[in-house]
């Protein structure tokens, strides 16, 4: 019988961490919401709509972090060939896509009343998020078209690394692009009122913890799924040798 | 009531919720598979 | 010296195969021509707006057909089982990568030059000395396209879905390259000052270096066993 207990042990550890992180998570999310809706003053020009900003930016920031996890886990997989790194990367891609989807859908709701456009093509932050979303959806498509095994994990790690190398280049190219086509968007992050800044940081922290809880849960689930699949294979093999 | 603000957060939480429901579904599927394997071992 | 000779042997092998069949080359050129012509029908005849969109049209017609060329370069290796032989041979994987990359790069540049000629005729561009910069752009974009492309093509070559998968993987990564190429070309077609041209060239050179190094290092993992 193959020994898959190391992976299951890892899964158990991840689940334990996720469980402990859940305790502060609910408080942090509540604080984040309080900060965005009550604590932060109403923005003078944009009005209440600007309250989307805190959690919108937090999701963007933490999505970026998720893709950084994919990059690091990819390198670690190629170096160690341990399945757990691949499963962690895959979980981080999924959660990262959920976060970028949130960014790309809450963004237009905010952009419409403020900039009078649903989608500000040319804003480097928006465009970089969009390209990130495209890259990591492509990652999931690649994943789903490969059979389970070392080869799949290697290819996904390679794609995850190349994808992340692309991020600074995307950012630069869109910034220069924007300087050619002037867009009427002013920077919104600079010169934040202290209470606004605190609310934003609280939201970032809340979704940062949420990111880890989700990635750990999903990663553990993936490891369990692999173990179940392995078990099924073994039972099938045993049935065959018995017959 | 600012409707843009309302929709912004409605979309935000809906997406989080949808992902949690998806995770729940995957977990249930996994449990069922495990149960099936257990049954097949009993026979 | 020996390394260079080995690389050239591999490149020459690919070029010779392509010269004999000319299959990928002709398909790629034809597809690119089709895109150029279809775009013309998408605008009203004689519409001046097409001028403004011209540099975008040029790069769409250069980049999309390039995928055919990339897929083709590994398809024959798989079908004949020669990729396996290459991997078993006592040659460093990096050399195999560079050999493949060079072959793809040369073929792509040839296709691109042909298409560029057709484009200048179709779209009735006034010839100016600025257009001599275009081949440089083609070469720079071709290098990043074929280094990431060769890496990904090797990855998907064993899959049934490779024809759809390769562009899906490649184009999200190439977004900044498209932006740089289109905007640099727009300055070449215009008559104004060269405001940002060198900046775009710089971006392309950086992209070339990053992806060439990245693909070179990662190729090892893509062709194992």
Protein architecture, described:
Chain A is 81% helix and 0% strand. Chain A contains six helices and no strands. The relative contact order of chain A is 0.19. The mean pLDDT of chain A is 87. The longest helix of chain B is centred in the middle third of the chain and has 40 residues. The radius of gyration of chain B is 19 Å and the shape is rod-shaped. Chain C is mainly alpha-helical. The chains are: A mainly alpha (243), B mainly alpha (43), C mainly alpha (225). At the A-B interface, helix 2, helix 3 and helix 6 of A face helix 1 of B.
Q: Please outline the major beta sheet of chain B.
A: none
Biggest interface, chains and residues, is: A-C, 29 and 33 residues
**Counting H and I runs of at least 4 residues, what is the number of helices of chain A?**
6
Number of helices of chain B: 1
Tell me the radius of gyration of chain B: 19 Å
Choose one word for the global shape of chain A.
globular
Task: Estimate the strand proportion of chain A.
Answer: under 5%
Question: Average pLDDT of chain B, to the nearest integer?
Answer: 88
What share of the residues of chain B lie within helices?
over 70%
Which consecutive residue ranges of chain B, at least 5 long each, have pLDDT under 50? none
* Structural class designation of chain B: mainly alpha
> Termini separation of chain B (Å)?
62 Å
A few lines on this structure:
By secondary structure, chain A is mostly helical.
Feature tags:
heterotrimer; B: 43 residues; mainly alpha; 1 helix; 93% helix; 0% strand; rod-shaped; C: 225 residues; globular
Topology:
The complex is a heterotrimer of chains A (243), B (43) and C (225).
Chain A: H1 5-39, H2 52-80, H3 83-115, H4 124-144, H5 150-180, H6 194-242
Helix pairs in contact in A: 1-6, 2-3, 2-5, 2-6, 3-4, 3-5, 3-6, 4-5
Chain B: H1 3-42
Chain C: H1 2-21, H2 23-42, H3 49-80, H4 82-88, H5 93-122, H6 134-156, H7 162-189, H8 197-223
């Amino acid at each position: 019988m193959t020994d898959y207990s190391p992976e299951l042990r890892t899964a158990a550890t991840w689940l334990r961490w996720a469980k402990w992180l859940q305790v502060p998570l609910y408080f942090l999310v509540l604080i984040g919401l309080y900060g965005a809706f009550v604590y932060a003053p109403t923005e003078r020009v944009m009005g209440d709509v600007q309250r989307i900003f805190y959690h919108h930016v937090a999701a963007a920031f933490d999505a970026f972090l998720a893709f950084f996890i994919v990059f690091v886990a990819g390198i670690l997989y190629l170096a160690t060939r341990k399945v757990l790194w691949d499963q962690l990367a895959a979980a981080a891609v999924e959660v990262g896509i959920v976060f970028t989807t949130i960014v790309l859908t809450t963004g237009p709701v905010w952009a419409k009343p403020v900039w009078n456009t649903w989608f500000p093509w040319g804003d480097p932050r928006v465009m970089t998020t969009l390209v990130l979303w495209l890259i990591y959806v492509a990652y999931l498509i690649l994943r789903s078209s490969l059979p389970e095994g070392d080869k799949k994990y290697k290819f996904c790690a390679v794609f995850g690394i190349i994808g992340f190398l692309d991020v600074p280049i995307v950012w630069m190219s869109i910034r220069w692009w924007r300087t050619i086509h002037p867009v009427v968007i002013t920077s919104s992050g600079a010169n934040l009122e202290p209470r606004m800044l605190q609310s934003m940081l609280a939201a970032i922290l809340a979704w940062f913890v949420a990111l880890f809880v989700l990635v750990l849960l999903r990663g553990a689930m993936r490891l369990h799924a692999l173990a179940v699949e392995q078990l099924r294979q073994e039972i099938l093999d045993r049935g065959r040798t018995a017959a | 009531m600012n409707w843009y603000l309302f929709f912004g957060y409605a979309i935000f939480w809906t997406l989080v919720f949808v992902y949690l429901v998806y995770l729940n579904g995957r977990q249930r599927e996994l449990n069922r598979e495990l149960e099936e394997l257990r049954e097949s071992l009993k026979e | 010296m020996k390394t260079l000779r080995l690389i050239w042997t591999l490149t020459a092998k690919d070029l010779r195969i392509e010269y004999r069949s000319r299959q990928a080359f002709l398909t790629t050129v034809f597809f690119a021509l089709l895109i150029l012509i279809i775009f013309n029908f998408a605008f009203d005849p004689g519409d001046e707006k097409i001028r403004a969109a011209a540099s975008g049209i040029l790069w769409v017609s250069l980049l999309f057909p390039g995928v055919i060329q990339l897929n083709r370069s590994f398809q024959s290796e798989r079908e004949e089982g020669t990729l396996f032989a290459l991997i078993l041979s006592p040659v460093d994987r990096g050399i195999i990568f560079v050999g493949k990359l060079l072959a793809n790069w040369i073929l792509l540049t040839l296709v691109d030059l042909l298409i560029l000629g057709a484009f200048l005729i179709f779209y009735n561009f006034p010839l100016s000395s600025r257009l001599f910069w275009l081949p440089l752009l083609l070469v720079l974009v071709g290098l990043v396209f074929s280094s990431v492309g060769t890496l990904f093509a090797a990855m998907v070559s064993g899959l049934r879905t490779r024809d759809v998968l390769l562009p899906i993987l490649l184009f999200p990564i190439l977004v900044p390259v498209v932006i740089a190429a289109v905007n640099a070309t727009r300055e070449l077609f215009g008559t104004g000052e060269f405001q940002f041209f060198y900046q775009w060239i710089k971006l392309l050179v950086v992209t070339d270096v990053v992806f060439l190094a990245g693909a070179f290092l990662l190729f090892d993992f893509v062709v194992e066993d």
